[in-house]
Specification:
Layout: H1 3-13, H2 15-22, E1 42-45, E2 51-52, E3 58-61, H3 67-81, E4 86-88, E5 95-100, E6 113-117, E7 121-126, H4 129-142, E8 159-160, E9 163-167, E10 174-180, H5 188-200, E11 205-209, H6 225-228, H7 247-259, E12 263-270, H8 275-280, H9 301-318, E13 322-326, H10 341-357, E14 362-366, H11 367-371, E15 380-383, H12 399-406, E16 410-412, H13 415-418, H14 440-444, H15 459-462, E17 463-470, H16 478-485, H17 488-497, H18 510-529, H19 540-543
Length: 553
C-alpha cells in the first residue's frame, strides 16, 4: 500500500477517522516524552495554557535561513487540515516563530534545536537549518498523527501542550537508511515516500544500493546498455521488464531529499556484484569468473576506465559528500580466487584516489576491503560484520576491534541489529534469515557503543554514524518494505538520536516504550503517512512482543 492509495481510504471515511487518530490510549506526558519519536534529550511541561493553531495563526520566520522550514510547515498543515496559514517576517500574537540562531543553542551539534510553547506562541530555534527542520518535525509529532496525511480533514483540533524541549542527536553526521533497489526496484514515488518516512524519524542519510547482479538501476549516458540490458530482471524474475531511475528522476529525488535535509550516498559496488554490468557489456567480465551469471569485473585498464566514467556521472547526478564503491565479497562463491589481496588493494587505491582527487568526494568501502589490508583514513569503512566468522575465513580479531585499534573512520551497520531484511520474529516456516530474526525490541535495546568491541574514548569521533540496511532479496513490494522497516525504524532512530543505555541510562524500558509511545502514537503516524508496518494486520504480535536484547561476543 502506498501513500496515495491509503489516502484514498482516508477520504472515504472522513472525519470519523480523525476521531480514531485523536483517541490515543496513553495521554501525552513527560513520562512518554509526549509521544515524540525519537524521544528528546530533555522535555519539561509547563503549567500554562496550550497553544492552538487556528486560521488566525501565523508562521513567522525571523531570518532567511528559516524561510524554507516555514514554507514546509505551512504546506504540511495545509495538506493535512486544509488550513493555509500566513507566512510572514513580522511577529504577532498566536504565532509559530522559526529562527536559526546558533549562538543561543548550547549544544555543538548542528542538528540541535530548542522548542518552547505557551498559550500565545511557539518558538522553534535551530542551531542550523537542519536543526530547525527537526524542531518542526517535533511540532508535527505534538499534533494529531493525521498531520502526516495528504488528505485534509476539516476541523481537526491542533493544540500543543506548553513545553520546553532541548534536543540534539547522539550521532550528528550520519543517521541513515539503506535501500537496495537492485534486487527489487523501488520507483521514484516509492523513494519519495521513504524519504518522508525518514524525515519523520529525524534521519538524514539515504544510502542507495543502485547496482548488483540482479539489475543496474540508474541511467548512465556513457553506457546506455547498462539500463537497456542491465536493468532487465530482478531477484524474483530474471526476465522482468527493465526498471531503473532516469537521470531526471535522480535529480528530482535528490532535490526532494535535500528539502528534507537528507543526503544521498550512491553506491556502485565493484569489482564484485557487477553481474548486471557484465550482462550489458560482456567484455567487462573477469576472465577467471566462470559462474553463470558472472559477478566480478576484470581489474585492467578497460574496467577501470569504465568504473571511472560511471562514477563521474554518479557524482554529477547526486553531487554527494560520499560515494560508496563496495569492494565486498569479491572472491566469495568463486571456484578459484579471482583477485589476490595485492590486486584488490591496488584497484581499491586507484578508485578511492580517483574519488578523492578527481571527484573531490569521500569514498566509502565495505569492511571486507579493510580486513584485507586496505587501510586509508581518508576512506570511510562501512562496518557490517559482527563476529570472527568472515564467511570464507576466520579472523583473529573482530572488525569493530580492528577499526578501533587502527583509529579508522567508519559507519556502523552491524548486521545482527541493523539488517532489516531479516525477519522481525522467527517465521513458522520459510527462511529465518542468516543473521537470525531481529525484533523491534532487540533494535530498541541495541547500544551502538556499548555493544561495540574495542571501544575507546575516541570511538565516537571515529564513528560517522549508522545506517540500517534493507537488502531486497526478500523485499519485493512496498508492503514487504514496510513490514521489514517499520516499526523497527522507530527503535533504530531512538538509539542513533538519543543513544543507547551507555549514553542515556534513563531511557524507557521496552515495555513502556511499546505501550506508551510506539502503539498509541507512532503506528498511527505510519497509518497517516500511508506506509505498511509489521503487525498491522495482526496487532497482537507487537502488543505481545516481549523484552529482548542481543548480546553477541
Amino acid at each position: 500500500m502506498n501513500r496515495y492509495s491509503f489516502n484514498t481510504i482516508v477520504g472515504l471515511v472522513g472525519v470519523g477517522l480523525c476521531l480514531v487518530f485523536n483517541a490515543a490510549a496513553e495521554p501525552r506526558s513527560s513520562k512518554n516524552s509526549f509521544g515524540i519519536i525519537p524521544m528528546p534529550l530533555s522535555i519539561e511541561a509547563k503549567k500554562e495554557h496550550r497553544f492552538e493553531i487556528t486560521g488566525d495563526t501565523s508562521i513567522v520566520y525571523l531570518d532567511e535561513k528559516s524561510e524554507v522550514s516555514a514554507e514546509y510547515l505551512q504546506s504540511r498543515i495545509a495538506a493535512a487540515v486544509g488550513l493555509k496559514l500566513a507566512v510572514q517576517k513580522s511577529e504577532g500574537m498566536n504565532a509559530i516563530i522559526l529562527k536559526v540562531a546558533p549562538e543561543i543553542i548550547e549544544f555543538p551539534e548542528d542538528d540541535a534545536y530548542y522548542f518552547e510553547s505557551s498559550g500565545d506562541k511557539i518558538t522553534i530555534t535551530g542551531k542550523s537549518e537542519s536543526g530547525l527542520f527537526y524542531g518542526v518535525q517535533t511540532l508535527f509529532q505534538l499534533l494529531p498523527p493525521r498531520i502526516y496525511s495528504d488528505t485534509p480533514v476539516q476541523g481537526m483540533e491542533l493544540t500543543v501542550d506548553a513545553l520546553t524541549i532541548k534536543d540534539k542527536p547522539s550521532m550528528g553526521k550520519i543517521r541513515g537508511l539503506h535501500v537496495d533497489i537492485s534486487r527489487h526496484f523501488r520507483t521514484k514515488e516509492e523513494l519519495l515516500l521513504i524519504i518522508d518516512s525518514m524525515a519523520m524519524h529525524k534521519l538524514n542519510t539515504l544510502h542507495l544500493h543502485l547496482t548488483d547482479v540482479q539489475g543496474w538501476r540508474v541511467e548512465i549516458k556513457a553506457y546506455p546498455k547498462l539500463t537497456t540490458v542491465g536493468a532487465i530482471g530482478n531477484k524474483s524474475d530474471p526476465q522482468a521488464p527493465a526498471q531503473f531511475l532516469t537521470q531526471e528522476e535522480v535529480k528530482e529525488i535528490s532535490a526532494y531529499a535535500n528539502s528534507r535535509h537528507i543526503s544521498i550516498i550512491p553506491e556502485i559496488d565493484m569489482p564484485g556484484h557487477m553481474g548486471a554490468a557484465i550482462r550489458a557489456y560482456p567484455e567487462l567480465k573477469h576472465p577467471q569468473d566462470q559462474r553463470d551469471p558472472a559477478k566480478v569485473i576484470r581489474g585492467d585498464a578497460l574496467a577501470r576506465d569504465f568504473a571511472k566514467k560511471v562514477l563521474i556521472e554518479i557524482n554529477d547526478l547526486f553531487d554527494p559528500e560520499f560515494i560508496h564503491i563496495g569492494f565486498d565479497e569479491v572472491n566469495h562463491g568463486a571456484k578459484e580466487k579471482l583477485y589476490t589481496d595485492a590486486q584488490l588493494l591496488d584497484l581499491a587505491r586507484e578508485m578511492t584516489t580517483f574519488i578523492k582527487d578527481d571527484l573531490k568526494k569521500t569514498p566509502i568501502v565495505w569492511d571486507d576491503a579493510f580486513m584485507h589490508g586496505f587501510h586509508d583514513k581518508d576512506t570511510v569503512v562501512h562496518w557490517w560484520r559482527y563476529g570472527k566468522n568472515y564467511w570464507w575465513r576466520n579472523l583473529p580479531t573482530m572488525v569493530d576491534e580492528e577499526l578501533n585499534q587502527r583509529r579508522q573512520p567508519f559507519i556502523m551497520s552491524p548486521a545482527y541489529w541493523t539488517y532489516f531484511d531479516m525477519p522481525n520474529v522467527k517465521p513458522e516456516e520459510g527462511y529465518p534469515g542468516w543473521a537470525k530474526p531481529i525484533s523491534t525490541a532487540e533494535v530498541y535495546n541495541w547500544d551502538p557503543y556499548g555493544d561495540m568491541l574495542g571501544v575507546t574514548a575516541d570511538t565516537p569521533k571515529l564513528a560517522l554514524g549508522a545506517i540500517a540496511c534493507t537488502w531486497s532479496e526478500q523485499i519485493i513490494t512496498m508492503k514487504d518494505f514496510g513490514d521489514r522497516t517499520f516499526p523497527r525504524l522507530a527503535s533504530y532512530s531512538e538509539r542513533i538520536w538519543r543513544g543507547g543505555k551507555s549514553e542515556a541510562p534513563s531511557i524507557l524500558s521496552w515495555d513502556d516504550y511499546r505501550d506508551r509511545v510506539l502503539i498509541p502514537y507512532q503506528l498511527k503516524r505510519y497509518e497517516a503517512l500511508g506506509v505498511w508496518y509489521w503487525s498491522k494486520d495482526n496487532p497482537e504480535l507487537l502488543k505481545n512482543l516481549g523484552d529482548a536484547r542481543k548480546t553477541l561476543r
